[in-house]
Amino acid sequence: LNYCVHQAHLLWIPLSQLLSAMGRRPAKCYRYCKNKPFIKSRYCRGVPDSKIRIYDVGRKAAPCADFPFVVHLVSDEREQISSNALEAARIAANKCLTKFCGREGFHMRMRAHPYHVIRINKMLSCAGADRLQTGMRHAYGKPDSVVARVKIGHVLISVRSRDVNKAGCIEAMRRAKFKFPGRQKIVLSRKWGFTKWNREEYAEGLAAGWLKSDGVGVQYIPRHGPWTLSQ
After folding, report:
1. What is d(CA 11, CA 20) in angstroms, rounded to the nearest whole number?
2. Are 174 and 96 in contact (CB under 8 A)?
3. How do residues 102-149 score in pLDDT, each as one tens digit?
4. Element of type H or E holding 222
5. How far is it, in rounded angstroms, from Cα 23 to Cα 36?
6. In the chain, N or C: fewer CB atoms in 10 Å?
7. Which residue, 137, 158, 160, is CA-closest to 89?
8. Any bridge partners for residue 58, and if so which?
9. How many of the other CB atoms lie within 10 Å of CB of 68?
10. 149-194 confidence digits (pLDDT tens)
11. What is the number of alpha carbons within 13 Å of residue 74 lying toward its C-beta?
12. Do the beta carbons of residue 147 and residue 118 sit within 8 Å?
C-alpha cells in the first residue's frame, strides 16, 4: 500500500510523506556501541551522507611555529556520536573561537570521523496505521544516518593557537561539550602544535637541526646519516 487514509479529514496521504515527517530519534537510542562496526559498502547501500563535511577550520595552513598552544576535547566514555552532534559541535566551537581568537588566530581539527551506519525500522503512528505496519516482524531496518564510534581517551576536537588565546580555546571546547552525549574532558597538551614533540624538544630540535619545519608539522631528520657515508 502506498497511501494511508487519515480518518479525521478523510484525506489520502502518501505513505512516503508520512514517513518523512517523523522526527529524529534522541541520541539515547543509538548512544551505546552494542554491535559490530557496520560501514557503507556494496552490501549496505543507500546510506545518507554525513552531516559533517568540513573537518579543518580556521587558519589551517598556518606554519607550525605560529601556533604553539594546543587543547584537546577528549571522550571519557565508550559510545557513538552522531554526525549531527559533530557538526553542531564544530559550528559552536568555530563561532566561539572566531569571537575570542579572530578568524586567523586558530586552527581547529575534528578528530572523530563517522563511518558506522545505524538503521531505523520506521513505523507509522497515524490513524489507520495498524493496517500497514507489521510490528516486529521483518524488523531489520533501513540505513538512517552515520555515527562515530569512540573509546575512552579518543580525541574528538583539537585546537592550536597562540598562548594568549588560551582562555578562548578552553571556552570553545567547553561550549562544544554541550553538543555531545556522555562525558568529555578538556586536556591541555604539552606538545608544540599538532606535532609529537614537547615544547623543549621542539625548540632544541630546530636549533640543533634534527627537526625541520614542514607546513602544519615538522620533519624529523635522523642524526646517524645515510648508510652510504659509513662505507
Report:
1. 17
2. no
3. 999 999 999 999 999 999 998 877 766 667 677 888 889 999 999 999
4. none
5. 26
6. C
7. 158
8. 107
9. 17
10. 999 999 999 999 999 999 999 999 999 999 999 999 999 999 999 9
11. 12
12. yes
CA angle centred on 166, ends 157 and 160, rounded to 5°: 40
**Crossing angle of helices 166-177/83-101, nearest 10°?**
160
Question: Is the dihedral angle over the CA atoms 11, 12, 17, 18 positive or is it negative?
Answer: positive
Question: Amino acid identity of 3?
Answer: Y
Q: Among residues 71, 81, 87, 84, which one has the least CA distance to residue 151?
A: 81
Number of helices (H) and strands (E), helices first, in the chain? Answer: 4, 12
Per this entry, what is the length of the chain?
A: 231
Best CA proximity match to 128, nearest among 23, 207, 12: 12
Contact 94, 176 (CB under 8 A): no
Q: Could you give phi then psi for residue 107, rounded to 5 degrees? A: -140, 115
Helix, strand and coil content of the chain, in percent to the nearest 5, comes to: 25, 30, 45
Q: Which three cell numbers stand for residue 110?
A: 575534528
Determine the distance from the C-alpha atom of residue 226 to the mean position of all C-alpha atoms in its chain, rounded to a whole number.
41
Amino acid residing at 71: V
| Rounded Cα distance, 193 and 161, in Å | 8
Q: Which residues contact 22 (CB under 8 A, 6 or more apart)?
A: 122
